[in-house]
What we know:
Elements: H1 7-29, E1 36-41, E2 44-50, H2 53-56, H3 63-75, E3 83-87, H4 93-101, E4 106-109, H5 116-127, E5 136-138, H6 143-157
Parallel strand pairs: 3-4, 4-5
Antiparallel strand pairs: 1-2, 1-3
Helix pairs in contact: 4-5
Amino acid sequence: xxxxxxxxxxxxxxxxxxxxxxxxxxxxxxxxxxxxxxxxxxxxxxxxxxxxxxxxxxxxxxxxxxxxxxxxxxxxxxxxxxxxxxxxxxxxxxxxxxxxxxxxxxxxxxxxxxxxxxxxxxxxxxxxxxxxxxxxxxxxxxxxxxxxxxxxxxxxxx
Length: 158
């Protein structure tokens, strides 16, 4: 699945994941579940976000939703065609639906969500081409780094 991670592409994708993890660290530092997202178009970062749901007391303040909102403003369009999103954890169904509706082309995720129901729903959302075109979804691209961050966060909360 990851055969496209060679040469310059690998360096660029690592840079995008590094920024997504930097966003996740921001969430961690304000006691939010450490998830970060970065949206890229034509090899350029156009938006980023991290979870602020607890601080804002707003259920839609997920990293992906905030990044989508910012990218829409940058492009002055709700259609984010030919954009890619890099996330530190598989999206929830709400975020997957927003990604699909925004027509984001590729989703690169560092870590698969342990909730199998979440994974099944998200896969169905991305695979369905009845509404918009299918979204390419590739997960488990930086498992150890994402797992360590999540484990550290939840260990500190207990």
